[in-house]
Amino acid sequence: xxxxxxxxxxxxxxxxxxxxxxxxxxxxxxxxxxxxxxxxxxxxxxxxxxxxxxxxxxxxxxxxxxxxxxxxxxxxxxxxxxxxxxxxxxxxxxxxxxxxxxxxxxxxxxxxxxxxxxxxxxxxxxxxxxxxxxxxxxxxxxxxxxxxxxxxxxxxxxxxxxxxxxxxxxxxxxxxxxxxxxxxxxxxxxxxxxxxxxxxxxxxxxxxxxxxxxxxxxxxxxxxxxxxxxxxxxxxxxxxxxxxxxxxxxxxxxxxxxxxxxxxxxxxxxxxxxxxxxxxxxxxxxxxxxxxxxxxxxxxxxxxxxxxxxxxxxxxxxxxxxxxxxxxxxxxxxxxxxxxxxxxxxxxxxxxxxxxxxxxxxxxxxxxxxxxxxxxxxxxxxxxxxxxxxxxxxxxxxxxxxxxxxxxxxxxxxxxxxxxxxxxxxxxxxxxxxxxxxxxxxxxxxxxxxxxxxxxxxxxxxxxxxxxxxxxxxxxxxxxxxxxxxxxxxxxxxxxxxxxxxxxxxxxxxxxxxxxxxxxxxxxxxxxxxxxxxxxxxxxxxxxxx
Length: 546
Hints:
The protein has 17 helices and 14 strands. The protein is an alpha/beta fold. A hairpin with a 5-residue loop joins strand 1 (about 100) and strand 2. Helix 10 (about 350-360) packs across helix 13. Residues about 1-45 have low confidence and may be disordered.
């Protein structure tokens, strides 16, 4: 979009500061000559009096400080652990305080914050890769990306970019796995024009051909590197082992599926899923809620709501315990994951499981796995565990680390020992108090900003979380006992169901460390008959037959 006038602010004329040499002039004399008083100048008597007074104050202040230090010696604790803090008195906000329902039924959480003249709008869309048609894997993510980059029916892609830059407005869109979204960040004074652009993008995208082709080219380049990093290989194969190859989370885009996506595919997907019936808004910043609500309702006017997207599917797969190896000979470190399926939301033991896993490996340097694998043995930079809660399908328990190929077996054995220990003996009261206190003390961070408050409640709306969840969260953490931790460890950690995945130089990992022959892959569960997973063709995702 051509601009007939230059709207940039005019340059401000600045005078050189005292002691500064004008640009381009030659330096003469000493470096400090320009800031010294002229020859023959005498400081006034009052100046010497002020200096003497300052010196007296400095001496007397030092004496008072020394006296204060002597009197406070008995009050300073000998160790930081002995410092007593007042009880944290914090009440979390409630969703109903910010929840607004627009005329067309769209729910918006509006949290005002007048500290800065900025407004942030985050839109969550019930759409994602789980809706990809067979043979069109990658469509949902492409719609989510080219929605922003591909222009609109009113503005070409280039004009849209220029207008957003001129307004200093950031507009972004994306496609995810179980949800997609778009965001708008703008100055409050530019909200009206920015909203017009935002809704034009959402409602009438053009999916400009050259931008769509650029996206395809970028995706194909990324596909070529699918087998380059052990982290991406581990993540991909771990998902296949736990949820099966047929679940949507493991249906990978291919060269054929990306190249088959047409403009009509993009438009049809957009028409079906990108409508107010699938929208939830989280808004924070410098606005008046009543005024912004009117603006949003005007923007949504005459846009049919449509039907909500179908639910995210579960999977029908039972993971097979054992040791699985992926050979990548060009690396000197291995990645190991050990775990099995976890729980779903609503499980009554959820908080006890959280505390149990924090003691085991989820709380960083205070956890047992981190202390033994990293701090005590020095086998890995990071090692720990997660016990996730699934919403649409079961979550997972997963302990993982990265170590030198020769010490992978030893680190894996340590994790197995810690799993066995937390299932066989009670944790100490100090360990449990540490993880409970940490969880409770960091709780306010979930609502540390207006954007965090709006985003949290919008996500709760999307996932239909119990409105009282955050109000009772800390009480449920406090209620966890040592006996609860032992009970859930025995019930939800099952060594007989462990899937163990190792990615790296298999020959070196199996050879082990010459000075530690007691640690071996053959001694791990399933190690006597490990299964080998070959690397697939990165463009077709077809695995070689073994």
